[in-house]
Design brief:
The complex is a heterodimer of chains A (189) and B (207). Chain A is an alpha+beta fold. Chain A contains 2 helices and 9 strands. Chain A has 2 domains: 40 residues; 138 residues, Immunoglobulin-like, CATH 2.60.40. Chain A has a 5-stranded mixed β-sheet, with no helix packed on it. The longest helix of chain A has 26 residues. Chain B has 2 domains: 39 residues; 144 residues, Immunoglobulin-like (Sandwich), CATH 2.60.40. In chain B, strand 2 and strand 3 form a beta hairpin. The chains are: A alpha+beta (189), B alpha+beta (207).
Chain lengths: 189, 207
């Protein structure tokens, strides 16, 4: 019995180095693979999974610009616009203040009805409006890569939604190269 | 119930014990056969209820008729009118002769208008599939808006004399329809009004 105990203890002692390495490498492997997969699934996915929401000031920083504040109003009888029956116009304005010489680009922001997840994009063409540089739908980038700072500007987004659709809505802006992060404003016109 | 002692010199114990043993083995054989048959029948039954291998890629089809709205996951379509003509023209000065089937429709997305358009607009007639013409100004490929229908006309150029029988129109908001919603509209071509010339509706809001 005593011999067996010393034998077992001897085995642990003989393999102490390998066991020590195992104790370090096994958790490191699990942690490493886990971290890699998580990074692939979230920050590197380029899918909008992390909303950056503005605080009390109504503004937030992301990717070299200050986003917000946002304004939204409902227009039931817009004059001079080609509007369909049974629909209303939600006009959203997002102030963008580039803080670096590299002004971030973005696609046109999306209006999302929070209760259903239904999504709209600005409908300038359908409303009979042509492109206007004073009413941009997508972000203004520096003319040359980092050459000059872009002055603050306002994204003007007309959304055509069914008349019976009620808020609150979120306005999601996805700056380019921001990875999985995007700016989310909450509006209830 | 006393067992009488066996008469001396009668049969040995072995023949007496053999009949139960063979009955047991026969019972076991029958059991194995029954079990095997049962398994084969069950396997056959499973094959009968099993979906084809490509079933995960099937579309979810909503079938409707002219004048009635068909709603799929991200597409709501109403075919308002179907006309046949010997010549069609758009409002922009384009005109073409042939055997044309003109379909007027209202279409909208249901959930998300991102990258959504009237991408798939096909006509299945007999064993053939025709896609909507890309000539002229038509509603083929028009961008869609969530919940607010857009109206327009699409046109199919068909072989002469093929405007008969039942045809099926197929609509989807993206080219990839695997595992996604598709709206099908059944049209009786014998009931379609024939005209000499049809002017396509301008793409816009329904009037």
């Amino acid at each position: 019995m005593a011999a067996m105990t010393t034998g077992a203890r001897g085995w642990w002692r003989r393999n102490a180095l390998a066991l020590g390495a195992l104790a370090v490498l096994l958790p490191a492997t699990i942690g490493g693979i886990g971290w890699w997969e998580w990074k692939y699934a979230y920050p590197d996915s380029s899918q909008p999974v992390w909303a950056v929401e503005p605080g009390k000031s109504g503004t937030t920083e992301l990717q070299g610009a200050t986003w917000g504040p946002v304004q939204a109003k409902e227009i039931t009888d817009p004059e001079g616009l080609d509007m369909p029956k049974g629909a209303k116009l939600i006009l959203v304005g997002v102030l963008v203040t580039p803080t670096s010489t590299k002004a971030p680009g973005c696609e046109d922001p999306v209006l999302v009805q929070k209760s259903t997840g239904h999504r709209w994009q600005s409908a300038r063409t359908e409303l009979g409006l042509s492109w206007n540089k004073d009413e941009p739908e997508t972000c203004i980038t520096s003319p040359e890569e980092g050459a000059q700072k872009v002055e603050p500007y306002k994204l003007i987004l007309p959304y055509v939604v069914p008349a019976d659709v009620e808020g609150p809505f979120s306005v999601d802006v996805r700056p380019r190269l921001a990875g999985a992060r995007f700016v989310r404003f909450t509006v209830d016109p | 119930m006393t067992i009488p002692p066996p008469p001396p010199g009668s049969a040995l114990p072995a023949p007496v014990s053999t009949p139960p043993a063979s009955r047991r083995s026969r019972l076991r054989t029958t059991g194995i056969w029954a079990l095997s048959t049962g398994l084969v029948i069950t396997a056959w039954g499973l094959i009968q209820v099993q979906q084809p291998d490509d079933a995960p890629y099937d579309s979810f089809v909503t079938t409707t008729t002219v004048g009635k709205q068909g709603v799929a996951r991200n597409l709501a379509v109403t075919v308002t009118e179907v006309r046949a003509a010997r010549a069609i023209a758009d409002g922009e000065g384009w005109r073409a002769e042939g055997t044309w089937l003109v379909v007027d429709l209202d279409a909208a997305t249901v959930e998300n208008q991102f990258a959504a358009a009237l991408s798939v607009a096909n006509l299945h007639l007999g064993h053939r599939t025709y896609s909507a013409t890309e000539r002229g100004e038509t509603a083929a490929g028009m961008p869609l808006i969530t919940g607010v229908p857009r109206h327009g006309s699409i046109a199919f150029e068909l072989p002469e004399g093929s405007l008969k029988g039942t045809a099926t129109l197929e609509f989807a908001p993206t080219y990839g329809t695997q595992g996604d919603g598709v709206v099908e509209v059944v049209v009786d071509l014998d009931d379609v009004a024939r005209q000499n010339e049809v002017v396509l509706d301008t793409t816009g809001w329904p009037r």
